[in-house]
Structures are given as structure tokens and as C-alpha cells.
Amino acid sequence: MSTIENVIIIWSGPAGHTAAIYAGRAMLRPLMFEGFLAGWVAAWGQLTTTTDVENFPGFPDGIGGPELMMKMRQQSINSDTRIQTKTIEKVDLSSSPFKVWPAWANDPLLAHTLIIATGATAKRLWLPGEEQYWQNGVSACAVCDGGLPIFRGKHLVVIGGGDSACEEAHYLTKFASKVTMLVRRDELRASKVMQKRVLEHEKIEVLRNTEWNEILGDGDVMTGMKIHNNKTDDIHEIQAGWLFYAIGYVPNTVFLDGQLETDAAWYIKTFGHMSTATSVSWVFAGGDVQDKKYRQAITSAGSWCMAALEVEHWLQDNT
CA spacing 20 to 30 A to 311: which of 136, 168, 185, 250? Predict the structure, then answer.
């Protein structure tokens, strides 16, 4: 008979590693599958694509995203977490113990509880020049990156017309000399309050009916963009120090095959006040796969502290 794991943590990042640290310190010997490239973001989550993190407590001088994740990973190991660099391809949540199939495995692993920490992937446009200048002029999180010294006093560009785009544009005005929003339609999709906030801000320029053709650079960093008006067909170049995508995220929930309740955008629903419990008992979710509002490393970590404590309490009462 196969061993039944106390808890399997699916994916890593700040969410998964926080859960692993707490579960490990509770002597649950968690098993983590930190992921691999299999169509999602790389193992360890989106922070691996962030050059500098200045808003994570405990690092007053900032820290590189990959370095922060390495430290979290080592702390998980020090807490007696077993880590495998594999992606989970599918799960069966129809009965307990749950079945989990890692990549390349014929037979499933069994677990009393599951923690889903698979996060969300920022939508990208894959424009010409994007891959070359990713994190050297292009990124998808203004709140994560916008406050870095390299953006001070520069012209910054935001693509998008919804609430998130307006929030990010407004946030960037604290640092930029000017913020330009590129909006494909002739109007913003954001709420009236958010529209008013950006349209009345002296530093924000909104270019409607504007699409994006190419990201320009000097070979090392982005220097501007080629854009065109979709009504007049006018094509011209603008200079800019950085481009931020604000066109949404896709939660990494495909492997669940609809077995957990999600909202219309495929984010996992959780139930109960301050709880990470999902629609299936003893399966827990938090971080970016469940949170479409904050999407910060620190909020992911906090939610997974909660998840690990809930797992510990359930195991105490049921095994």
C-alpha cells in the first residue's frame, strides 16, 4: 500500500514556501512539487523574473527576486520539507486520500491534504522586441518594479484600459516624469472613479484608439515604442524608459480540470472568513491562484501561513 502523505504542496513561490516552512515546523514533513517549465512560469514563481524586490519586509536595501526565492527554498528545506523539481500534471479530488500525478509518473501519490500554490501568469503581448527587453524595459507589475531608482524621472508607458491599468498608471506618477496609457479602444474600461483619477492627473496622458507595433531599444535596454492609431492609421515612435503590461493575469488552474470551484476568470474560490478552504474539504488554496486583487509576494506568504495552520489543525483532528 502506498504511503499517504500528510500534505502535498503543489508549486512553490512565496506562497508555497511559506506553507512549507510552517508545515515543516509543525513536523508534518510536507512534500513540495516546486514545478518545472511545463507551460507555466518557471519554478519558484514570478519573483524569478523580477530583478529587484524592495517591498518585502526584512530587506531594507532590496533583494533580487531569484535570491529571495533561493533563501525561501533553503528555509523550506531547513524546516524538513522534501522538494521535487517536477510539475503536477493532474489530480483526482473525488475522494480522500487525494491522488496526485507528477510529470512522468505512471502511478499517483496519495495525500490527506493538498495545498494549491500554483499562482497566476501575467498576460503578455509578445510584441517584436519584447523577449529581448523583458526586465530590461518591459514587465508586468508596476507595483513590484515601478518604485526602483531606475524609473525615477523617466517617461513610463502602461498598456491597458481597465482598473488595474489605471491603478498602475496612478501609482507610477509617484516616480515618473510622465506616464502614458495606451488604450486600444476609444474609451477606458475602468470604473468611473478610476477613470476620473487618471484623466485628471497632470502627469498621465491617455492615448485612445492606440495599438502597439514594436518595442524599440539600443540592444541592452528599451528606449521607446512604435505605436499606431487604429482610426487614422498614423504610425509614430515614442520614447520611453519602461513599459508595463496591465492586461490581466491567468491563474494556473488548468491541471485541476474543474474539480475546484472557481470564479468566471478561473481563480479558485475560498470559503469562510479569513480561510483558505476551497470547495473540496481538505484542499486549500491561496496566493495568486486565488487572489486577483493584491497579487503581492507578501500577501501570498500571509495566505499560505494561514493554509499551513489550517492543514495542521485538520490533521490533528482527523488522523
Answer: 250
Of 145, 166, 288, 291, which is the active-site residue?
145
Ranking 36-50, 71-85, 86-100, 170-184 by mean pLDDT, the lowest is 36-50
pLDDT at residue 46, as a whole number: 63
305 in catalytic set: no
Residue 284 backbone dihedrals phi, psi, to 5 degrees: -120, 150
Please name the residues in contact with 173: beta carbons below 8 A apart, sequence gap of 6 or more: 179, 201, 203, 204
The sign of the torsion formed by the CA atoms of 178, 182, 187, 191 equals: negative
Report the pLDDT averaged over residues 15-22: 90
Asked whether the domain spanning 130-245 has the same topology as the one spanning 4-121+249-318, the reply is yes
What backbone phi and psi angles, to 5 degrees, belong to 297?
Answer: -60, -40
Distance between CA atoms of 21 and 45, rounded to whole angstroms?
17
Q: Does pLDDT of 6 surpass 90?
A: yes
The answer regarding whether domain 4-121+249-318 maps to CATH 3.50.50.60 reads yes
163 catalytically annotated: no
Topology classification of domain 130-245: FAD/NAD(P)-binding domain (3.50.50)
Lowest mean pLDDT among 131-135, 204-208, 309-313, 314-318: 314-318
Q: Write down the catalytic residue from 52, 61, 107, 141.
A: 141
The catalytic position among 61, 107, 144, 263 is 144
181 DSSP β-pair partners = 158, 206
State the pLDDT at residue 155: 96
Residue 234 annotated in active site: no
Q: Helical H runs in the chain?
A: 13-25, 65-78, 130-133, 142-145, 163-172, 192-199, 297-318
pLDDT, position 39? 41
- C-alpha distances (whole Å) from 113 to each of 68, 100, 309 are 27, 11, 12
What ranges do the domains of the chain cover? 4-121+249-318, 130-245
